[in-house]
Amino acid sequence: MAVIPINTDAPSEAVLEILFNLKVRDVMSHPVLSMAPEDTMRNIQSRMRDNSITGIPIIKNEELRGIVSMDDIVTALDKGWIDEPAEAHMTKDVIVFEEDMPVSFCITYFNKHGYGRYPVINSENKVTGIVTATDVITALLSAMNQEVARLESKAREMEARISPETGINSEEENKTFEFKTEPFNFGIAGQASTEIKKILKKMGIDAYIIRRIGIASYELEINQVVHSLGGVMRYVISGDTLEIIAEDKGPGIPDLEKAMTEGFSTADERVRSLGFGAGMGLPNTKRVSDRFEIKSSPGKGTVVIAGFDLRKKQDSKDV
């Protein structure tokens, strides 16, 4: 099982900066070694052995048709279909990354699904690379060696401006922060969630509360990216409270009761191929929020408001 030992929920500020700024295209291996659907499983096994790899994407006309892993080869040997074409036995339900996704997506999905590799596609759905856990770890180590010292120095300068009496940075208190989202633009997806967590950390907010806000923010932000025509993530900090106001343009939600049911999703094939669409976004947001409200009109978009008490002590709520 491929696992990358980095906690994307509560990393240091330096690591957080790297995870967002480093994109999938920066860590992927390319050009891609691939095979065709008509190639036999035995030929694919030989290619994997000769190149010391454990998986090969199956591509035709530059489009991804599936992937053959070592598990697929072992199964083919066991079942006696090693000389049959890959098209009949490859894994067809493949989760892919887009080139512009932040590396934080990679870490989340390696740790969530445990797959050994993920194909990478561009905006035209053409396969341009492949990412393994080793690719991610190598790139992160290189980036950290170059950037951690500079970023930690910057973080210390920011902390020096925090009021010693309250832990609140007067520059951030009673302010509104706004970030735009765009459909399937993973180059900026996650920016809002990353920035608000940095702001709250500077304010001295408890890590448990920051984690809850981060979960809600991420779920609402990704919902806008993959389900709407774009929108705005607005964060209103007023005294000891924070409200996330997520307002999007798009199809709206025809049945709010169903949308709030865990596992219910209207995600299409493209959304599911990117690893989203599990139907947990809105239920997760409501679960971690102190106050939750949703309004939606078909064809006019959706507004979700999630409220948080910034000084509320940790309770037994599971996050």
TrEMBL record:
Keywords of the record: CBS domain
Domain (CBS) spans: 28-84, 90-147
Pfam families given for it? CBS, HATPase_c
**InterPro entries annotated for this entry?**
CBS_dom, CBS_dom_sf, Diverse_CBS-Domain, HATPase_C_sf, HATPase_dom
Q: What name is this protein filed under? A: CBS domain-containing protein
Q: Which organism is it from?
A: Candidatus Gallitreponema excrementavium
